[in-house]
Amino acid sequence: MDKDKQIDQHPNPKQTHAGPSHPDDFYQQVLSSFEKEAYTEETIKDNQQAWQHFEEPDRQVAQAPLINDFPDYFFAGFWIRLFAFVIDLSVIHSITAITIGSVYRLSGLSIGTHPFGLYQLVSLAIYLAYFVLLTKYNHGQTVGKMIFGIRVISFREAQLSWQTVLIRELCGRYVLQFYWLFYVGYLPTIFSKNKQHAADYFADTSVVTINLIKAFNKHADVHQEV
Known about the structure:
Layout: H1 2-9, H2 23-36, H3 41-55, H4 78-107, H5 118-137, H6 143-148, E1 150-154, H7 162-178, H8 188-191, H9 198-203, E2 205-209, H10 210-225
Antiparallel strand pairs: 1-2
Helix pairs in contact: 2-10, 3-10, 4-5, 5-7
């Protein structure tokens, strides 16, 4: 009996690690970060109302204010976006191989190396269409972004408009991807405040981590119920 009491008095080693031991602790940390940055309670509530759309894109929030001033750590960093991009490239490669690649193989045609050959132009069209269509119709998420739980957002719009998507995913991605000298346009993602690359600056967009928005909205909902 005494041994049992002694065991109960000692903390569980698994609970002594740093960091939140319960999801509610994580929600509290997220909300606390807003309070430390001098956000008012009214601003927090407004953000919670507006950001429900980014957590659940199909959910229509009536007259939601456009307050997209996310804290710095809400934005997805360079590496997670790179990993998502690699997955997207794999998906695009598979689509290209199944479509135009199959036609060339069955026809016995040579792909060639000319940058403006038919195969290269169709491959480019598939590449750009993939990012444009998924970003627009899947609420800012490609396959890679879905896997890593990140999403493209606009600082000016609740919904990504065609203009914004075309600037970012068509014009911007074409320049950044197909002219190697402009690869440096991705580097600002590493050190810029809102983790924006060159195309993001022109489109006024960035990429956020959905779980952090969920954490904020979850705690705000619980706080309002109490």
